[in-house]
Amino acid sequence: MSKAKRVGAAENGDGGLMGVDESALALTISNGEDLGPFIRAAFEIGKPETLVHQLKSFVKKKEVEIEDLCKLHYSEFIRAVDELRYVLVDADELKSGLAEENKQLQEVGDALLRMLDALIQSHGTKKNLMQAIDSLNMCTAVVELCMRVNEHVMNDSYYPALKGLDNMERDFMPVLPARALRMLLERHIPVCRALIERKVNKEFNDWLVHIRSASREIGQLSIGQASSARQREEELRGRQRQAEEQSRSGSKELVYMLEMEDLDEDDSQLKFDLTPVYRAYHINTCLGMQDQFREYYFKNRQLQLNSDLQISTTQSFLESHQSYFAQLAGFFIVEDRVLRSAGGLMTSARTEQLWESAISKVTVVMEDQFSRMQDANHLLLVKDYVSLLGATLRRYGYQVGPLLEVLDTMRDKYHELLLADCRYRISDVLANDKYEQMMMRKEYEYNMNVLAFHLQSMDVMPTFPYIAPFSATVPDCCRIVRSFIEDSVSFLAYGGHIDYYDLVKRYLDKLLVTVLNEALLRLVRSPTLGVSHAMQIAANMTVLETACDYFAQHAAKLCGIPTRLVEGPHGVLAAQATLRNSQAVAHDTMIKLVKSKVDEFMNLTMNINWTPDEQPQVANDYLNDVYIYLQTIADTSQEILPPTAFYKVISGVLEHISRRILETILSEDVKRFNIYAIMGIDTDLRMLEAFADEKQASVHERVLGAQPLKAFLAEARQIVNLFTATQPDLYLNPVIRERNYGALDPKNIILIGEKFKDLPEKMFGGGRGARVAAKKKLIDALTKRLKNDG
User: Fold this and answer.
1) How far apart are CA 237 and CA 692, in angstroms?
2) In angstroms, rounded to a whole number, what is the distance separating the alpha carbons of residues 640 and 542?
3) In 3-state terms, the chain is what percent helix, strand and coil (to 5)?
4) Of the chain's two ends, which shows fewer C-beta atoms within 10 Å, N or C?
5) Measured distance CA(12)–CA(21) in Å, rounded
6) Cα–Cα distance between 767 and 670 in angstroms, integer?
7) HSE of 253 in the Cβ direction (CA atoms, 13 Å)?
C-alpha cells in the first residue's frame, strides 16, 4: 500500500482509524516501512492514544506468537544443550588421553637417550683400543707394505705399488721408531719409482702401435652399427607408413608393433683396451708428470692422425675409401672414449683441435676425389659411406656439418651424372620400341607393367590377354624414372637436409622435363614419323602424365612424407603441365600427318566428273578411300587416346576434308560444274556426316562443351545446301544467312557461282529444264548481288 493511500485512510476520522488502519498498520510494521504518516495523522486528529493502543495490541500479539513458537521447539532446544554437554565430556576424556600418551613417550625417550649415551661411550673405548693396536703394529705394517710393493711391481700392478710407496713416505717414515729401516726406505723408494716409470711408458708406446691398427676395425664395427640402425629406422618408418595407409583406406585389421630390443645401440660392442693409457696417465700423475704426459700423448696421436689421413697410392679411392673413413672413425671413437674416461688426459679443446684439423683435410680429399668421379654409382657409394661416417661420429658429439656440406656441393653433379645415364637409357628404350599396343598374357605381366605404376584404368583385374593403350616405352620409362627417384633419395637422405622431398621433386621434374619429355618431342618432330607411331607416342604421353602422380607419391613414400600431404597442390609435379603441353604438340603432329595422308586421297577429286549427265547414285571414288582411312584412324585413336584427343583428331580431319572439298571446287582445275556434281558432293557429305554421327556417341558426354562432329563439315555442307536450295537468294536475308550459311565467305560464293552452268535442255522434259534454268538465274542473281554488295 502506498503512503498516499495510508495517509488518506488516517484522515478519514475515528471510525477509519479504528477499522481500516489497524490492518494497514500491522502490514506496514511487518514490511519494516516508515510509520510517520500514521503518527502524523493521529496527532492531526488529536487522538494519539488510539495509535498507542493499537501499537501495544500489535506488540502483545507478536509476543504471543513468539511464546507459541518457543513452546513448539522447546524439546529441540533441550536436546541441543544435552549434545553440547556430551561433547564437553568427550573433550575432557581426549585431553586426559593425550596427557597419558605424552607421559609414556617421555619415558620411552629417556630410555633411548640413556642407550645412546652408552653407545657413544662404547665407540670411544673402541677408538682408544684401535689406536693402541696401530701403534703396536706399525713396524710390522711397514715391513708388510714393503713386501706388497715388491709383489705389485713384479705383477705389473704399478698404481698400487706407487700408492704403497707414497703411503710409506707420508704415513710411516715420519713416525718410524727404527732409524735403520727409515734410511733403507729413503734409499730404495726413488729407485722403485724410476723402474715403474720405465715399464709403464713402454706399455703405453706398445698401445699406441696397437690402437692404430685396431682403429680401422673399431671404425668398421661402429659404422656397421650405424648402418644397421639406419636400416631399422627405415623399416620402422615403412611399417608406420603402411599403418597410416591402412588407416586411411579404412582397413580394420591393423597391426601395430614396437620392437623394444636393439632400438638403441651404444658402443658396448666396441671393445678396445685403454688400460695402458689409464695406467700410464695415472702413474705419471702420481709421479707429478701429468702435464708432460698429456703433451706426449697429444703429439703422438696427432702424428698418427696425419698419417691416417694420407691417401693410399696403391689403390683407387673407390677401393680404399671404406678403410680410409673407417680408420678416421676409429681414431675419433678412441679419442672420445679417452676424453670421457681418462680423467683429464685429453680436454675438449684439444679433441676439437684434432677434429678440426682432420675435417679440413678430409673435406679437401673428398672434394678432389668427387671431382674426379664420372659415375653416379661410384659417387653414391662413397656418399653413403660418408653419411654413415657422419652418423657414427655425430653420436659421439662431433660436428660433422662440413662433411655433409661437401656432399651437398656434390648434389648437382651427382644428379647430372644420373640424368645423363637416364638420358642414355631412355633414348635406348625409345629407339627399340615398336610403338605397338602392349599385350600382356599373364597376371604377373599386368602387375609388373600396369599395377606397379598405378596405370590401371579400372579397379578390377582385366581378362587376359590384355591389350594396354600404351606401348612398351611406358613401363620401361617408368622403371627408369622409379630408379632415378630411388637413387636421388639415396643420395639426399641422411645428408644435411631434413626435409629433402622438395629437392627430390625438383630433380624429378628435371628428369621428366629435360630428359623424358625432350626425348619424346624429338620423336614427335622426327621427319620420318608415321601416323601410327605418332598416335602411339601421344597415347604414351597421356599415360606418362598420369604416372606423374605415382612418381610423386613414390618419392614422398621414400622421403617419409605421408601420402595425404602430397595429394594436394604440394605434390603436383611441374612436369605434368609440360607433358600435357607436349601431348598437344603430339596431337597436332598426328593431325598434320593424318591430314597429309587424307590429302593423298583428296587429290583424287581431280578425277571427278564435274559436269555429269545424270545424278550420281553412289559416293565419288576418292571418298571410299577417305572413309576407310577415317574408320581405321578413328578405331585406333578411340582405343588408345583420351576422349579429348580423339575428338581433336576426328574434328580436325573432318574440318580439313570440308576445306579441301571447297578448295577443289574453287581451284582452277574445275572450270565448270553442274547441279549433278553438287549432288555427288552432297552424297559424299552424307557419308561423312553419318561417320561423324557414329563417332559422336563416344565423345558426347566425355568431352564437355564439344560441338557435334559433323559441325566441322559445315563449310562444305553449307555450300552444297546453298546450290541445291530452291531459293538460294534467301542467303541475302541476314537472319537466314547467319543461321544456315554462317560458315561461308561471300567471295567464295561468287567464285563458285560463276562456275555453275546449266544442264543441256535435251536432258529434261518439260518443266524440269525450266526449273534448272530458273536455278541458274537465281544463282547468277545472287552472285551479281554479292558482287554489288562487296
Assistant:
1) 55
2) 9
3) 80, 0, 20
4) C
5) 10
6) 29
7) 0
Which helix (H) or strand (E) is 467 found in, with range?
Answer: strand 466-467
Is 776:757 a contact under the CB 8 Å cutoff? Answer: yes
How are beta strands 439-440 and 466-467 bridged, if at all? antiparallel
3-class DSSP state for residue 439? strand
Cα 309 to Cα 331: distance, rounded to the nearest angstrom: 11
Q: What is the mean pLDDT of each run of 10 residues along the chain (790 residues)?
A: 41 41 78 81 84 84 82 78 81 85 86 88 86 69 80 79 80 74 79 82 88 87 84 75 60 45 49 83 83 90 88 81 88 89 86 90 87 85 86 87 84 88 92 88 88 80 84 91 89 69 87 91 86 86 87 84 69 83 87 86 78 80 84 83 84 88 84 85 87 78 72 86 84 86 84 75 44 70 80
Report the alpha-carbon distance of residue 183 to residue 138 in Å, rounded: 16
Cα separations (Å) of 558 from 269, 382, 408, 668?
Answer: 31, 20, 19, 67
User: What is the value of pTM for the model shown?
Assistant: 0.66
Assign 631 to helix, strand or coil: helix
Q: Which of 93, 28, 18, 100 is nearest to 53 (CA)?
A: 18
CA distance 286 to 489: 55
400: three-class secondary structure by DSSP? coil
- Rounded Cα distance, 737 and 751, in Å: 18
